[in-house]
Structure prediction request, 280 residues.
Amino acid sequence: MKQQLILFLSALQFFTRIPVPTWVGHSPAQLNNAARYFPLVGAVVGVLAASVIIIGSCFLPLSVVLLLSMAFSIFITGAFHEDGVSDYADGMGGGFTRERVLDIMKDSRIGSYGAITIVMVLLIKFHALNEIGSLVGQPHAATMLSAILVMGHVTSRFAAVLVMRPLRYIRDADDARAKPAADSLSTLNMWVAFITTVLALAIAFAACHYLITVTSNHFLSYALATAIFSTLLMWVYLVWRLRVRLGGYTGDCLGATQQLCEIAFYIGWLGALTMPQRLL
Prediction:
């Protein structure tokens, strides 16, 4: 149990700014095995972001609370994944060869593609969540959004972990951002990550499941399945894109996968809620 705790805390210290005890230590092998707990780190980030919504909704409008929640999640993760999707967009958008794409991704400067992408990612995330809250309505919006945030953070990080299974890490030189976690994902680590994801999804969905009976939107019961399916489509596209363009992945690609799959999750959920309006 102590070893499992060390692995979880290793993942927590790598992907967030949350302080951990010094006895946790750090090593490439330790972090590679900690990949099994990346979705659990997502649950922690999601719960912290959700707490801002729960507390803030008592005093402030929903749209303001959502912005504060997003800002808080960026703060506690150090914009780790947002930086990844920005570098990914710069590389894929500005590079015409595999080598050029990798060079651009490694450049610390942000380009036009990266700037536009990060703005669009944050805007889509905000508007999708805000629309979900508007459709659910008070007094259930805060509960629904809190559960969705936890599920979105968990599912998207599991999607990023799964990228490590079919693809290989392609940086030749050591990359301090991702090389320690870049070894092939073992079967054990994959299954632990999967079980952790399923448990987190079940708990979070149970927290908002009662809304099915108190709202008139019967499509809410299909929202989780729709969101997962939307995330799966995004994951399949990204894996295909990485295989074709790069023949593997980098740390920035994992960050991009997390951000884009998180958006796909929210859009899938929103699609389930708006389905009655489209069918009527």
Remarks:
- The first helix runs from residue 2 to 15.
- DSSP finds twelve helices and no strands in the chain.
- The chain has a mean pLDDT of 85.
